[in-house]
Write a structure and sequence with these properties.
Blueprint: E1 4-6, H1 7-13, H2 22-32, E2 41-43, E3 51-54, H3 60-70, H4 91-111, H5 118-131, H6 138-143, H7 149-160, H8 171-175, H9 180-183, H10 188-199, H11 205-216, E4 219-221, E5 227-229, H12 233-246, H13 248-255, H14 257-263, E6 282-288, E7 299-305, E8 310-316, H15 321-335, E9 340-343, H16 352-361, E10 364-367, H17 377-389, H18 402-409, H19 414-417, H20 422-426, H21 432-446, H22 460-465, H23 476-482, E11 492-494, E12 500-502, E13 505-509, E14 517-522, E15 529-534, E16 540-545, H24 547-550, H25 554-585, H26 589-600, H27 617-626, H28 636-650, H29 653-675, H30 689-704, H31 711-720, H32 724-736
Parallel strand pairs: 6-9, 9-10
Antiparallel strand pairs: 1-3, 2-3, 4-5, 6-7, 7-8, 11-14, 12-13, 13-16, 14-15, 15-16
Protein name: Integrase
GO molecular function, one term: DNA binding
InterPro entries: DNA-bd_dom_put_sf (IPR009061), Integrase_cat-core (IPR001584), Mu-type_HTH (IPR003314), RNaseH-like_sf (IPR012337), RNaseH_sf (IPR036397), Transposase-like_Mu_C (IPR015378), WH-like_DNA-bd_sf (IPR036388)
């Protein structure tokens, strides 16, 4: 956990009783005098400077919240000390020490009342000890056969310096670890033997010797580099026995990791001392029952309330998420809703159904790390208690381990065991329901009233009864609905026009519209009914019915669905339809938006900006198109025609109009004369492009020849001559000549 924070980091944490802005934290530190604290405030060494503040400066609520978020209780990497102090004394060392202390005690008794100098007293005492005239216990004499003044003085100094452990002596201890199998080949032989024992604990010394010969040869390299023959089997037996004594923990970790984790791995105590209230933390787990039932071996699901140590059980034939839900139901109805439930990573505990149940009840789910049962040691210990306390009393008890099972089987002779089934061997006569009843009775009548060491001698019943905390209860019917199984594939469906599909059947949901997403819970008592809940907010939407499974007339169900849909749409879209009509009759939407834009526009005019012309070749060409065409001088004949046309156009409007009308009538008469012999059922073909070209060409040739041409025809021919159609035909005429006009 980080204990030193800057003002910005404190604000980011958003802790209670502390500002949520960096400046607010700085003002608080100045006001409270945090910067003046030499122990809890220090200059920040990073870029930007400033101060860092220790968590101890925070108010109590802020400290608790910060530690709740970041404090982790976990296994630490303990450093190995450079000096382990005095080595543990052996039995021989202890005997030597006690014998020498007995000699010193005898010398002190001998010296009392004597006026001689210490050297003289020592000389006399040593002489009498060696001569056997002093009364000395036989075991002391056995250890110390002969005594000298120097040894006696050395022992006295060690005792006066409180170094009594140094009085022990074991010559064999100095030679420990110096045997050939310990030091051969740089210690690799010892490591190889240790690995063989860890891999196969029951291997014999003779086979170990053979494997050492296979690995290192018939001669081993000693400490001094000399080659020595492989020792006999007896030496290997002593070496293996010594390794099993000195390396017991390492061998256990290698050969039996579960036993090492259960009995030898370092562990702490009191990690959950902060859990002091009932329903603050539950731990749940499951284990196969050590008692066989008639219908097979069942699993026991256990729920433990950590603070008062009370317990609840649920018996299930197989591990499944539904069993977890039913265990929680039993505990909820008895104790109330917990704040947190801690589980392991079993499939039944991390299933989507279990997570959904916890979320629906507002319970925080906490998972322990994988393969670390010690992370929820309270419920593990509770399971061990029930397995060792209750299960041996039940019929069908099969033992806690393979060794226990074999011992129970051995109660009958081989002849009796031969061909006997499990029920007969273990006296199985109990059903799963009876096992559940025994567990409930044991939890309420025995375990609840048994003093608990973790409660300082109080019982779980007393601890729960002494708590003033109010229980948060859930209605049993609502709880039953939350425990209903969801439809397949997670239970979430998108409503279609035909309803929702569950296991190949169509369920009609009257209260939902196509596109709505719902969570479906199946009615365990009616296969044709499901309860729908909104995925977003969890509200109850309605019942989904399957006409086929529920025995309902499909036509009536569909009619009810249509009526409900119409009602929902009318309720949702009625006001919107009226508003649409008002919008259609009013001003166009674009006018309304432009009015708002004009209202929002600032009442400011921009100053004129300086302008410079910008041109490109393309822009220059485009300007040429827009300029007035250059007037080309006309020749005499064209000028005469132009003057005539201009005079006609500038003349009186009515005479000119009359001439135009007369000309049009004359052309119509000509056309009628040509077509009067055609029957009424024959329609004249429209003028083809080539015919138009011939007519225009004839008019233009007449104009060039100086002939009098009708003004309208001349104007039309002049305009037609500028069209692409005319130019195309003119190109063909230039290529093929006048023969082109003949076809």
């Amino acid at each position: 956990m980080k204990e030193w924070l800057t003002a910005r980091e404190i604000a980011t944490e958003a802790l209670p009783a502390l500002p949520e802005t960096e400046r607010g934290v700085q003002l608080l530190s100045e006001r409270e005098g945090w910067n003046a604290s030499l122990a809890y405030a220090r200059p920040r060494s990073g870029r930007g400077g400033g101060f860092e503040y220790n968590v101890a400066l925070f108010p109590t609520l802020a400290q608790l919240e910060y530690k709740r978020r970041h404090l982790k209780v976990e296994q630490l990497e303990l450093p190995i000390p450079a000096s382990l102090g005095a080595a543990p004394v052996t039995d021989r060392e202890r005997a030597e020490r006690d014998a020498r202390l007995a000699v010193l005690a005898a010398f002190e008794r001998f010296s009392k009342g004597q006026r001689l100098k210490p050297a003289s007293l020592a000389q006399i005492f040593v002489a009498r000890y060696n001569s056997g005239t002093l009364p000395v216990d036989p075991w002391v004499r056995e250890r110390i056969c002969k005594l000298s003044k120097r040894s006696l003085q050395r022992w006295r100094l060690a005792k006066e310096a409180n170094r009594t452990e140094s009085l022990g002596s074991d010559p064999g201890k100095a030679r420990a670890g110096t045997g050939l199998l310990d030091v051969a080949n740089g210690g690799r032989v010892r490591t190889h033997i240790l690995a063989l024992i860890a891999h196969q604990p029951h291997i014999s010394a003779a086979n170990v010797r053979k494997l050492v010969r296979a690995e290192f040869g018939d001669e081993l390299v000693g400490r001094d580099g000399s080659l020595q023959a492989v020792p006999p089997v007896r030496t290997f037996q002593h070496a293996i026995a010594a390794l099993k004594r000195t390396e017991q923990v390492a061998l256990t970790k290698l050969s039996n990791p579960d036993r090492y984790r259960s009995t030898m791995a370092p562990r702490g105590v009191g990690a959950l001392r902060h859990v002091t209230k009932p329903n603050q933390l539950w731990q749940i787990d499951a284990s196969p029952a050590d008692a066989q039932c008639i219908d097979g071996r069942h699993a026991i699901y256990v729920c433990l309330d950590v603070a008062p140590r009370r317990i609840r059980f649920y018996v299930s034939k197989t591990p499944r998420a539904a069993a977890v839900g039913l265990l929680i139901r039993r505990a909820l109805l008895a104790w109330g809703v917990p704040e947190t439930i801690k589980t392991d990573n079993g499939s039944d505990f991390v299933a989507a159904e279990t997570k959904r149940l916890f979320a629906s009840l507002g319970i925080e789910a906490e998972l322990s790390p994988a393969y670390t049962p010690q992370a929820k040691g309270h419920v593990e210990r509770a399971i061990r208690t029930v397995q060792h306390d209750l299960m041996p009393l039940l019929p069908g008890y099969v033992g806690h381990s393979v060794a226990d099972r074999k011992q129970i089987e051995d109660r009958k002779g081989f002849a009796d065991r031969l061909g006997a089934d499990t029920a007969e061997l273990f006296g199985v006569s109990m059903t799963g329901a009876e096992l559940q009843a025994h567990l409930d009775a044991w939890a309420e009548e025995t375990y609840a009233h048994k003093p608990h060491a973790g409660l300082k001698g109080a019982t779980p019943f007393q601890a729960a009864a002494a708590s003033p905390e109010a229980r948060r209860m859930v209605d049993e019917r609502a709880l039953d609905v939350l425990l209903m199984p969801v439809a397949g594939s997670g239970g979430v469906r998108t409503v279609q026009a035909t309803g929702v599909r569950i296991d190949g059947h169509h369920f009609v949901l009257k209260e939902a519209l196509p596109g709505d997403r719902v969570l479906l819970r199946m009615d365990p008592l009616d296969a044709g009914r499901a309860f729908a809940f909104d995925v977003k907010d969890g509200r109850h939407v309605g019942e989904a019915l399957c006409a086929e499974l529920a025995g309902i007339d499909p036509k009536k169900l569909l009619a009810a669905k249509k009526a409900m849909t119409a009602e929902i749409l009318e309720r949702r879209a009625g006001e919107a339809k009226a508003e649409v009509k008002r919008l259609v009759k009013g001003r166009p939407l674009i006018e309304r938006t432009l009015e708002v834009d004009r209202r929002d526009a600032p009442n400011v005019l921009a100053f004129p900006k300086p302008e410079v012309p910008h041109t490109t070749p393309e822009i220059a060409a485009a300007l040429d198109v827009t300029r007035e065409a250059e007037v080309i001088p006309l020749d005499e004949r064209a000028a005469a025609m132009h003057a005539q046309l201009k005079a006609e156009l500038e003349g009186p409007a009515l005479p000119g109009l009359a001439r135009l009308v007369e000309a049009a009538d004359a052309r119509a008469a000509k056309i009628a004369a040509r077509t009067d012999r055609v029957g009424g059922n024959v329609a004249a073909l429209p003028e083809s492009p080539k015919e138009r070209f011939r007519r225009a060409k004839a008019v233009l040739l007449a104009v060039e020849a100086g002939e009098v041409v009708d003004t309208l025809d001349a104007v039309w021919a002049g305009g037609y001559a500028q069209t692409p159609e005319y130019r195309a035909h003119q190109g063909m005429l230039d290529i093929y000549g006048e023969e082109y006009l003949a076809f």
